[in-house]
Amino acid sequence: MNPIIAILKEHKVSDAKINELFQTLTDNPLMAMGTLGQLGIPAEKLQQLLGLVMQNPALIKEAVLELGLDFSKVEAAKAQLQK
């Protein structure tokens, strides 16, 4: 299992919320950060999660693919942020 998803499940985030989070991430990455903050994950775990993503951004792609979402939307959102 993807470590991002594993941390979310460890904190009893439902599958529906996980899907919603990654769907938001594919549509609007900045909005996803706000959604992530509302999941009630302790600050130290949230920091660990963000550290994982910063060290290995490919984990986002793995999680999106594991959830069956469209990774091309993540790439499009990333391109939009770089403008």
Describe the structure.
The protein has helices at 3-10, 15-27, 29-37, 43-55, 58-66, 71-81. The protein is mostly helical. It is globular. The model has no long low-confidence stretch (mean pLDDT 83). This is DUF2999 family protein. Pfam families: DUF2999 (PF11212). InterPro entries: DUF2999 (IPR021376).
Relevant terms:
83 residues, mainly alpha, globular, DUF2999 family protein
Structural class by secondary-structure content: mainly alpha
Number of strand elements? 0
**Oligomeric description of these chains:** single chain
Give the biggest beta sheet: none
Question: Helical residue percent?
Answer: over 70%
Termini gap? 33 Å
**Spans with pLDDT under 50 lasting ≥5 residues?**
none
Beta-strand percentage? under 5%
DSSP helical segment count: 6
The SSE order reads HHHHHH
Provide mean pLDDT, rounded.
83
- State Rg: 12 Å
Q: Tell me the overall shape.
A: globular
Protein name: DUF2999 family protein
Give a topology summary:
Layout lengths: L2 H8 L4 H13 L1 H9 L5 H13 L2 H9 L4 H11 L2
Organism: Shewanella scandinavica
InterPro entries: DUF2999
Protein name: DUF2999 family protein
Give a quick rundown of the structure:
Helices cover 76% and strands 0% of the residues. The protein has 83 residues and is mainly α. It is globular.
